[in-house]
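look at this stuff:

>
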Amino acid sequence: MQTDSHVEQTHLSANTSANRIVIFGASGDLTRRKLIPALYHLFNHGMLPDNFSIIGVGRTELSNDSFRQHLQQSLPAEPRDQATVSSFCHHVFYLTANPSEAAQLAPLAAGHAQQDSKYPGGNTLYYLATPPALYAPIAQSLFSLGLNRQENNWSRLVVEKPFGHNLASARQLDRELHACFNEKQIYRIDHYLGKETVQNLLVLRFANTIFEPLWNCSMVDFIEITAAESLGVEKRGAFYERTGAVRDMLQNHLLQVLAMVAMEQPATISADVLRDQAVQIMRLFRPLTDEDVRNHLILGQYLASNVRGENLVAYREESGVSAESRTETYVALKMYIDSARWQGVPIYLRTGKRLPTRATEVVLHFKKTLHPSFTGVAPANKLIIRIQPDEGILVSFGLKRPGSGFQVQDVAMDFHYSDLSGAVMPDAYERLLLDALNGDSTLFARSDEVETCWSFIQPILDYLQDPAHTLYGYAAGTWGPQEADQLLATDGHAWRFPCKNLTSTQYCEL
């Protein structure tokens, strides 16, 4: 394992030494849609040092000028004055190279040693925006050139999900990366954790005495976490065929958000302590048995539908998808956490494509009142944390309806981040890139977190290997299979629907 000393930098300013951001997979979709716009925003707000460079590395033959022109198309319209764009592009370069061939990355090593003007050395952040199969080869190329060393400067490696394909491959990838970089240098990015509302879960719980006493099995009836997407797989059918909703969303995003919701109070707000707490609660996720997988797991795949006059194709009709595909585009799971705080509280997770709206939210459903006059009349209280797109927090509770008697109606106190005067909601990638440059790993997954999540869902992955696993169809534009509703109805519960404009639902087993 690489054991060079770890040099940390806790604050970033315009006076820091030269910083390089090297993006592998620079001509790809992630770079164009997310990384370059995020870096441009940071630059525009003075959050990057004066002496920095962004070096795109890819196999596509591009010059510096053609790469800059390619990226300009992805820059946000506001703010976008030509002088700022030109100044930003002055820091952008391109290196045509096969990143798994170390010799082709020699210009990076030369720049590191010579501090030349084209590829300035100093501190370096390597971002792997490539297919996962290239993660280990790129790390090995950097290692062979000595670009992993941390003597007078730091070197960090940002790794995009998926971190492996199952438990065994995740462990293998870790071994390969750790042979080249130490754990403190590796930043496994999950953009959900960069969202302001996810981070605010900790403040909501631990900075407000009115909430923390309610955050337990004595008061909470059940918890649901929804990550709904209105789009289909778009042009990523071939990728999605290898991935599916379980690997794409459940294994990482939903379980990471659940850990933030359920963890115990950290002694301090620091990277190691917070991630220790996350791992501790993940290890208390009740292991899934064969019976759980058969009875508490719903898998679905979207079917063709007409939504508001638009014909939406079935998943099996998407480009790159097999006509007999059994890949899930929807998953719902009932699970438990075996801790004193959450003992006996059912937790329902769901995510899917081609649902009625794009929305991610956490809902704590509180137990109903035991007062005999209002039992069965007063609505159960709910605390709703909206993660996207309309970030905010909503508290639902009962009040007396005006007039005679004591009729109860549901009302809400609704906070929107957009209501804050002068508030700027940074994009998740902006926040996470800046944290990586600053050496703050709080919102990045640690090796043991990733392994624990894979361990938890491995029984589901084993079940998916059975060609006869149960897969339900649902019409595009609806909230998924009817069986997912029944999963909650059996316990006397129901999903909360983030929007009310629902189309008719068709159900069938595939």
